[in-house]
Amino acid sequence: MKTNDFSYTEFIKPDDNSTITSMLYDHRIDKDENNNVVNQKEYKSVVSELKLILHTAYFKNIKGNN
Amino acid sequence: MDDLRPEIASFGATQIQSPHIDALAAKGIKFTNAYCNVPVCGASRASMLTGMLPTKTRFLNYNTFVEKETPEAITLPQLYKNNGYTTISNGKIYHHLDDRETDWNEVWRPYAFDENNQGLTPTDYWQSLWKDYQNPENRIEYRKTNTGPAYESGIVNDSVYIDGLLTEKVIRDIKKLKTSDKPFFLAVGFISPHLPFNAPKKYWDLYDRNSIKQPDNNYVPKDAPKMSISNWPEMRAYSNIPKEGQVSDSLAIDLIHGYYATVSYTDALIGKILNELKVQELDKNTIVILVSDHGYNLQEHTQWAKFTNYNTSTQVPLIIYNPFSENKGTSNALTELIDVYPTLAELCGLEFPKNQLDGKSLVSVLKIKTPKGKIMFLLKKEMVSH
């Protein structure tokens, strides 16, 4: 997903929807996406916020269209 | 357009020569923060033209079939047709020539409907020759092996390559539509700058090879998941590209040169079409939208082609010129290709289908000086590419 400040990606196993790995790029300081900060402490709250939004949208999407 | 990232002078890529697209951008609104919802052609086109997001089960691959995946959807061209517009699909619009034929009054692609002696359907015939090399040695190789080099500097004029033929057809259409009393929805699907980067030599000559640079970030991002990096199978299918490992610096420069040349060639063709609209005085009441199905990698993060989750794959140029509006300039609002459908429908005063559209019309965004944008989503399946 893309917000004004970030791009956040989760790679998900299709069979059980579990997250394999993820990445977060801070477009405010890293427009070219050269540094994945998903595991850096100072982004912890950003990651939880984006994760929640992404999961809500993803699961709503699945439910709505299956 | 196919595979066009915002590699256009008016979008900040000042090394590119794209005067006609830049002129259109200057007259209209350009969206500098526009994204596709899935970075592969067939799926992205299906999503844009139905106004519906991809999900876990639909719009996932290059060979998406709208009719099979969303048979109930009222597509954008269908909406126009239902409202009395003449709708014409020229070139590559849906991935499949025979997808949703009923959306259109006419479906046309260069060569597809010519007689062929192999008993092929128009779709298969087009599929067999869209990599239309013109240099004799490349033509022979393509015929023998069904592939060829990733680029070609052709000793031909503008009308010979497949997009040149497309442009001539579109110009004929504009002349015809001028005499019709019906409004029209005319879709022009350039295959360029999709691989192979085939362009007439004069567009290669616009660029000094010595001034072409590889990207600064030709490396895997720090701490990036391995699976986020594409091995670009699409590019590797061409005969002069190694099957594994990186391309040489010299080949990288040639590929980037070829992409630039192909963008400039297409820009010139767009100029011809916009000029014909003007000659026929249809520019005064025709909304023009220029958009690409997704972005492209030119060796950023070691990658070529598309189908990754990086910005280079997902960001697209989007320009909307509305002759009835005083608004022009740049919008940095976060926008996505599913917004195209409701935007065009609202601009033309067409009623939206109910419970279908996932996007938002940009018409109100255009009126706000500092739009905030929103969050957008994209979804992608495995690393298959086209």
Write a structural description.
The complex is a heterodimer of chains A (66) and B (386). With 66 residues, chain A is α+β, with helices and mostly antiparallel strands. Chain A has one domain (6-65). Chain A is 33% helix and 23% strand. Chain A is built from one helix and two strands; from the N terminus they run E-E-H. Chain A has one helix at residues 44-65; strands spanning 6-12, 19-26. Chain A has a two-stranded antiparallel ribbon with strand order 1-2. The longest helix of chain A is centred in the last third of the chain and has 22 residues, at 44-65. Chain A is globular, with a radius of gyration of 13 Å. With 386 residues, chain B is of the alpha/beta class. Chain B has 13 helices and twelve strands. Chain B has helices at residues 19-27, 41-50, 66-69, 76-82, 122-129, 136-145, 162-178, 201-204, 233-236, 249-279, 311-314, 340-347, 363-367, and strands spanning 29-35, 86-91, 106-108, 151-154, 184-189, 197-200, 288-291, 297-298, 304-305, 315-321, 329-331, 335-336. In chain B, the strands form four sheets. In chain B, strands 1, 7, 10, 11 and 12 form a five-stranded mixed sheet that branches. In chain B, a hairpin with a 5-residue loop joins strand 8 and strand 9. In chain B, helix 7 (162-178) runs parallel beside helix 10 (249-279). The model of chain B is unreliable at 368-372 (pLDDT under 50). Chain A binds chain B through residues 1-4, 7, 9, 11, 14, 20-23, 25, 27, 31-39, 53-54, 57-58, 61-62, 64-66, and chain B through 35, 53, 55-58, 216-217, 219, 221-225, 227-228, 300-301, 309-311, 314, 334, 372-373, 375-379.
Task: Considering the chains and any ligands shown, give keywords for the structure.
A: 66 residues, two-stranded antiparallel ribbon, globular, B: 386 residues, alpha/beta, 5-stranded mixed β-sheet, 3-stranded parallel β-sheet
Describe the structure concisely for a colleague.
The complex is a heterodimer of chains A (66) and B (386). Chain A is an alpha+beta fold and 66 residues long.
